[in-house]
UniProtKB/TrEMBL annotation:
SMART domains: MORN
Highest taxon listed in the record's lineage: Eukaryota
Alphabetical UniProt keywords: Repeat
InterPro entries for the chain: MORN
Protein name (database record): MORN repeat-containing protein 5
Length: 100
């Protein structure tokens, strides 16, 4: 399979630039979608896994930990007004918010 660094360009405008192992995304990279979303961070076995930053085109951001493609562990959200909020996630759902 494909190993090392590479670029994947999908017909629908998605793009991944980063590391591959056995022809799957594994390591560090940047994934962008045509509507303006972007994930920059760690991957394991084709899924967001480890530390990463996800940006939405409307200015919202999640910066924190991922497991199996979902937010999992501590992370910060930043709203469009740039207010940051620390929280805890489990399998993509926010389960705890910490006071700033």
């Amino acid at each position: 399979g494909f190993q090392g660094r590479g670029i994947y360009l999908a017909g629908d405008g998605r793009c991944f630039k980063g590391q591959w192992e056995d022809s799957i995304i594994h390591g560090v990279g940047v994934y962008t979608w045509p509507a303006g979303r972007e994930y920059r961070g760690q991957y394991a076995r084709d899924q967001k896994d480890g530390f990463g930053i996800f940006n939405w085109p409307d200015g919202r951001t999640f910066e924190g930990f991922w497991q199996g493609g979902k937010q999992h562990g501590q992370g910060y959200t930043m709203a469009k007004d740039k207010l940051r909020s620390l929280g805890e996630w489990r399998e993509g759902r926010r389960v705890k918010a910490y006071d700033n």
